[in-house]
Amino acid sequence: MPATDVLLIAGVVPAPQVLADVVGALRARGARVHLAGAVDADRLPADLHLDWVCALPTDTVHAAPNRRALHAGGGERLWLRLRREPALRRQLRRVDVLVALDAYASYSVRRMARRHPDLDARFGVAEAVRDEPGRPTRPVGLATYPGRAAGGLRDAVRGTARTAAGLATARPILRSRAGSRFWLGVLTAPALPDPVRAVLAREVGTGMSWAGHPERQSRALRAAAAQVTAPDVAARLRGDAAAAELAAGELPDDLATVVAGLLAVADRRHDAGDAVGAAAHVERALGLLFHRVLHVDRLTSPLADDPAGFVAPLRRSTAVAAATAPRGRRRPAAGPPAGRPVRLLILTSVDDKFLSLIRSTYDAEPGVELRFLDLAAEPEAQRLAGAVGARLRHRLGGDPGHAEQVERWLRPHLDWADTVLVEWCAAPAALVTSVDPGTTRVVVRLHSYETLTRWPHLVDFSRVDDVVFVADHIRDLAVSLVPTLARRAAGPGGAAAGDAGNVGDAGWSPPRLHVLHNAMDLRGFVRPKAARARFHLGLVGVGQVAKDPRWALAVLRLLRAHDPRYRLLLVGADVRPETSVAARRYRAALDADLAELTPSGAVLRTGPTDDVPAALTEIGVVLSSSVREGCHVGLMEGAASGAVPVVRDWPFFAGRPANARHLYPADWVVDSPQEAVRRILAVTRDERTWRAAGAEATGYALATWDWSVVRPDLDRLLST
Hints:
Layout: E1 5-10, H1 16-28, E2 32-38, E3 52-56, H2 67-70, H3 74-82, H4 86-92, E4 97-100, H5 103-115, E5 120-123, H6 125-128, H7 148-168, H8 171-175, H9 177-187, H10 194-210, H11 214-225, H12 231-247, H13 255-271, H14 275-289, H15 292-295, H16 302-305, H17 307-310, H18 312-316, H19 318-323, E6 342-348, H20 356-363, E7 368-374, H21 379-386, H22 388-395, H23 400-416, E8 419-423, H24 427-432, E9 441-446, E10 466-469, H25 472-481, H26 483-486, E11 512-515, E12 536-540, H27 549-562, E13 567-571, H28 581-597, E14 603-607, H29 612-616, E15 621-624, H30 633-641, E16 644-648, H31 660-663, E17 669-670, H32 673-683, H33 687-705, H34 707-718
């Protein structure tokens, strides 16, 4: 490379050694090296000898400082920031070579090369230091890619509409009703081209949200959708409107229709062989159907009311059927090995709170060789596990590269293991079942929340040997949602553990279904309680809306009307208001209740603790106030401690064949705060009665849920 000026563009902070190697190689050839992008200028080595640096914030590709950036990908966000740097614009007139150091930077380099066609644009570290002087044989300009000129014109037209809308949708304008009415009139004007109407609708809607009127955002998008002629555009606009309503904490009245519209587009794209378009619309439909505001951050859920009906649009979609069709495995899982320990791989992502006892037990077991893999600690695995769009594209006939990457990363782990235990039926389970597991047994444990997400619908259960549920009511809900599990549970209660199962008509064997309790060392919770604990109610775990601590406060108010000695101890972190608008509303109502009760000492908030057994020594009555639970470990631990259990009949499952009354003794479960009060007053009427009821709860908990009882079943399941 002759003496020249090279400008390196970084979307993410470059690895120090990589940057040093590139700069050193370029300078050794006489080049002057400049750097712009996501750079921590204070941490650049002094001996790097850069000729010029334009340092942007290191989170540039993730930040959204303006409305356009909200809708942009990471690469475009970097470009939006770079193009506002006057010094960089001046530098571009002086340099000869542009180099994108990472994928995020590629978009910016292409845009710069389009504006400066004489520049030599290169992509990647290897290209940066290649020896050939001058420009590559195919320069990155307008003529580099077929359709680039047309694409530029298209971008210009859309950009003009976006720019005009941006200027005219400033907050002061859209805060006024007159401004909103004006733009609604524009969006419904006849003869407006569909692409322009769609761009304007999104810009105007976002502006209305920024101006403090999120309800008008959905109205603008729906108004535009009613006017467009292209069904695909209309479906996407209605999807955007539904997403805006959910983001505002509201439930779209026409959600089923919106989802059906998106899936109809996906089906048409699939029929036309457009894997990319079909996958995008399936992914969008799943995102709306399983939005957390619908199911997680509220006290009710349409899924709980009619599980099969709720997912019926998915079952009717040909694109979804193609993307989730069982593929089976070429060979069945092998039996336990002879002459060596069982190789057990436990795989999860981030959340391993229910695994500590399982890991410590099998790690100390001579007949088991244990490995633990947290995908969150493996950036490549985490990226692959969360790549829903790429997985859908592959299943629909495109993007073979995704499957190849998963195969390369996962195969060594599968080849090593005899059995893989996947904790949580979520992204890790979808990742593992995206490849043929060979002769390795695959066991997936589903707790509870996963049934409210898209993940069970993306897991290929034809490649799973066993599915473990923590309770019968969770098994029943999952079976009603996922067809490949429904084929397994032909009779009441699902298939028994160890049942070999029938081969399905497509040549695959559905998984065996099991119900096993969580691994809990409950004997460590048996500690003495002081007499004062008789009047202390406790709620262990209050950090989710589903825990509904306001129900417990209603019980407390009624109790204190009888005897002001009753108090409520809240153990655990608070509901996080930043999770969603719906969660924020619940937290505000809860805080108002607590502001009324806390000053008198009626409520004590202990916050998070690492020593739950110690916290339970102060609790004489343990509550489960939740609207839904898998098994409520905190309640089970409280019962083991000798606290008298009072369990709300969880509304999500009340009235079903399996529910809270199926999991716990019948006299523990109540229908209302009033019934809870009657039970509490009866069991705490004197110390002897209270301690006797607590001892009975301890005995039941230890005999039913302690690890000494549960472990043999798990040993048999894992073939250890």
